[in-house]
Amino acid sequence: MSTDLVFVKEISATAITGKDAWNRPAPQPITVSVFLNTDFHRASVTDNLKYSVNYAVLTRHISDFLKSNEHRNFKSLGSIAEAVASIALDEKSGGSEVAKVIIKSPKSEIRANSVEYELVRSRIDSAANIDSYNVTKLRLLTIIGVFTFERLQKQIVDVDLKIWIKKDDPRLDFHKVVRDIVDYVESSNFKTVEALVFKIGQLTFQNYSNLGIESVDARVTKPNAFSHVEGVGVSSLMTPKNFTNVEPLALNYVAHDKEDFNLPVESEEGYNYKGRHVAYIAIGSNINQMENITKALEKLQGYGIILESTSSMYISKPMYHLDQPDFFNAVAKVSFIDHSPHKLLQILKEIEYAHLARVKEIENGPRTIDLDILLYDNVQINTADLIIPHKLMLERTFVLQPLCELLPPDQTHPISAEPFHDHLQQLLTNKPEDHVQKDSSLLQFIPVPRISTDENVMRFDQINYKSPTLCMGILNMTPDSFSDAGKYYSSSLEEIVAEAGKLVKQGAQIIDIGGVSTRPGSVAPSEEEELKRVLPLVKAIRQSTDQNLAKVLISIDTYRSDVAKKCLEVGADIINDISMGRYDERIFDVVAEYGCPYIMNHSKGTPQTMSKLTKYEANKNDDIVEFVIDPKSGQQETTNDPELNNFLNGVSRELSLQILKSFRAGVKKWQIILDPGVGFAKNLNQNLAIIANGSFFKKYSIQVNQQTSIGGNPNQSSSYFSFNGMSVLIGTSRKKFLGTITGKPDSPSDRVMATAATITSAIQQHADFVRVHDVDACKDVIKTSDAIYKNIF
């Protein structure tokens, strides 16, 4: 092997190398150095680079690789080193027969100057392959020395380690190796540095010899031994043979394991828990999921606990124990008076075991209900039966994703001091191992009480947007509809049921039945007349023997609570309210009682006045704070267009304030589908702005601060609500603004192609539902748009 070397030193990059010293999969600065054995004698003689390794090409290839993989979790420094070695040995980059690679991470260990992974790879001799972890200047405090004054005070020692391993083993957690050394050395005492070096080697082999560690080269330096000397110390290269017939170490120190990330914390002693408190509770079930979750929340409120708000509902794959049904997961924000954390825990356990008969046969196995306290005010608790903040919350997407819907972006973890939203983004880029969880992605789920979970198609990926767009077909039962001039009003019930079956066969998953025209300027019929138009049709569809209608979801387009209630009683599934609860707030009570999906359509005024109510202003209320948060990146967004910003925020603010009202009536977030209300109190430009910026309605969040009184004492509280995790419906079909654009103001049925264009844009902007009259004509538009923008085909 040639002794000539071509090297590239310390290419700077950023990479995720597994979990850092704080147990987070966060990007870390690294440097990459490569040393190639080559023979450049001919290049020296001819002064021609083609006879040597082109280090410019090598540097570019390595830099390009690191840049394109900066969001990939390599899970270890060794994985990066292996990949870089492959590039260096490739003839297109380096072409050397032997390559040495050093990956240096200066920030991954808070006690050490740096950690390095060094490997040598050969194309011709695998026996030459060697790997090592190197730790530079691990600074520790311990009792060391023989003199009395040395035994009275801890001294600084610097430890340099080189641990030779057979090959990078994913089971070898190098941070834990370092923590073990730190915990052992700092809880022990030594008379000589020779003993300290020996014990470091013994500890390493005793704990990790089964993970391929072959030798340990340890150096201990006492930097403060003499005032005129930089340091004194010893080093030793050790193998398992050095510890033959040596008594094993008695490890009686308290290990700093990752499960104790929550320390230091406090107990409940000394706290006065009188007054109002807020907690966040994780909810999970994989046995009769919605039934048990609904019962658990009812029982919770029976203890005097107020359900302030909930997250969306999610379907998640099981974690740890994989052979079991999928889980439903959500998080609830609750408030209560005087309950301590342990009292709250007692209540939750009573609900789990006494009320819902949870049986814990195996750890992390199937369960009727699981209720965990995630946060309680800003309190930190660490007792044998309760740890707050929850110790595993930062490694579970099915906890953090719904939790972040309930927390403003600046709220930090009480211990890590890092925003919860940042922790979530780290989780989203750090997928668990397959043996831990097959897939950590969540599907937002909109429950429908009438049908089973398997029959329900309303489930959506609200992070990657890879779920099929659902089609809602329209059946107007009015004589004055803008779109069809009462096409079905005079038809027989049998004919209309047949038309409903036709819509389903054409591709509609939902049929939206309306008995009141809400076009601008329309006059509403009486409630009796509305029921006469819609109720018989709902009954007839549910009684039909047509297989196409057996599983279709029925939506009722009404803003009247009594109409909604009576239709739900005979088989309707969804309430579609164009007034967002403004015309009849009792509709919130009905939606809460039946647990049905509720489409909240933004509007202002009435059909007679809404066309004049198109002015939207910036927020002027000091008690309202607005955010725009991308759910995938976690970043807050802004726009440089003040008018557009005022409009989108204005629509979202008005929707949000109504949603917060619905929560007080008992509606859950997972019931609500957002409709920004194209054509309702919007002018032409505003309608187009909704279509072009539809994804905004998955990003808006609002915090409303309010002053309340508890027991005569003033109390400051806040309500936070986010569109993150919510489904969006866009309804543009045949609407007037399309006639204006196309020059077809008097012929709604000729606006099909214009409608198709808006559907494509809506799907590109992550719409989950589109509401159309012409299902047959639009189904291919939906399929093609899903293929283009969601890669679904």
From TrEMBL:
Pathway: Cofactor biosynthesis; tetrahydrofolate biosynthesis; 2-amino-4-hydroxy-6-hydroxymethyl-7,8-dihydropteridine diphosphate from 7,8-dihydroneopterin triphosphate: step 4/4; Cofactor biosynthesis; tetrahydrofolate biosynthesis; 7,8-dihydrofolate from 2-amino-4-hydroxy-6-hydroxymethyl-7,8-dihydropteridine diphosphate and 4-aminobenzoate: step 1/2
Cofactor(s) for this UniProt protein: Mg(2+)
Entries under InterPro entries matching the protein: DHP_synth-like (IPR045031), DHP_synth_dom (IPR006390), Dihydropteroate_synth-like_sf (IPR011005), FolB_dom (IPR006157), Folic_acid_synth (IPR016261), GTP-CH-I_C/QueF (IPR043133), Hppk (IPR000550), Hppk_sf (IPR035907)
MF (Gene Ontology): 2-amino-4-hydroxy-6-hydroxymethyldihydropteridine diphosphokinase activity; ATP binding; dihydroneopterin aldolase activity; dihydropteroate synthase activity; kinase activity; metal ion binding
Residue ranges of domain Pterin-binding in the record: 469-783
Catalysed reaction, written as an equation: (7,8-dihydropterin-6-yl)methyl diphosphate + 4-aminobenzoate = 7,8-dihydropteroate + diphosphate; 6-hydroxymethyl-7,8-dihydropterin + ATP = (7,8-dihydropterin-6-yl)methyl diphosphate + AMP + H(+)
Physiological role: Catalyzes three sequential steps of tetrahydrofolate biosynthesis.
Family affiliation: In the C-terminal section; belongs to the DHPS family.
Protein name in UniProt: Folic acid synthesis protein fol1
Organism: Candida parapsilosis (Yeast)
Lineage, broadest ranks: Eukaryota, Fungi, Dikarya, Ascomycota, Saccharomycotina
